Amino acid sequence: MNNGCELAEVVQARGYKKLDYCTHYLEYVIHDALPAPQFPEGFVVKSVLEEDDVDKRRIAKAIAFGGGYAPSDWVPAPAYEEIQQAPDYRKDLDLFVVAPNGDYASFCTIWIDEKNKYGRFEPVGTHAEYQGEGLGRALLLEGFRRMAQCGVTRSFMNSGNDFYRKVGFRETPHSYSPWIRYFPV
Predict the structure, then answer these.
(1) Are 148 and 34 contacting, i.e. CB atoms less than 8 angstroms apart?
(2) CA-to-CA distance for 66 and 72, rounded, in angstroms?
(3) What is the pLDDT of residues 127-179, one digit of tens each?
(4) Structural domains in the chain (count)
(5) What is the CATH number of the domain that holds 106?
(6) Are 136 and 37 in contact (CB under 8 A)?
(7) pTM to 2 decimals?
């Protein structure tokens, strides 16, 4: 019996069920000839190190991921402070695009594994009112540039969203299927 089958038996015995879908990892190889990010006139990139308006971050995230949520359903402000306590969190790699009117229009947080020289974006999103303007693509290109400055050679993404393929991520042979366990309330 191989280790994969043994692991499946252990998690099944503990009440977990494998979900019926599989997601492939995508990879972006960071190279010297990275395209320069092109932002529309008046839009600028900043990091949380430079400015950290939690309310603007909450609005951008809520409206990027669903749009219709009431403010009471938004990620609570203390969650943004808690994430900054993660050992590999870096304020200089928590990026957002500021619109000419001051809105946070697009955002991404970069997580780096220095030992293995790879980085990940999580989360990535663009405020619904600014989608389709190329902000997400430009922000990821800026993110790749910053990853390269940190010695990162590749970035991985586990999303089925075609947006990432358009930016330049390519499918790898690696995939995962999530397991879930329901607990009584």
Answers:
(1) yes
(2) 14
(3) 989 999 999 999 999 999 999 999 999 999 988 889 999 999 999 988 888 89
(4) 1
(5) 3.40.630.30
(6) no
(7) 0.84
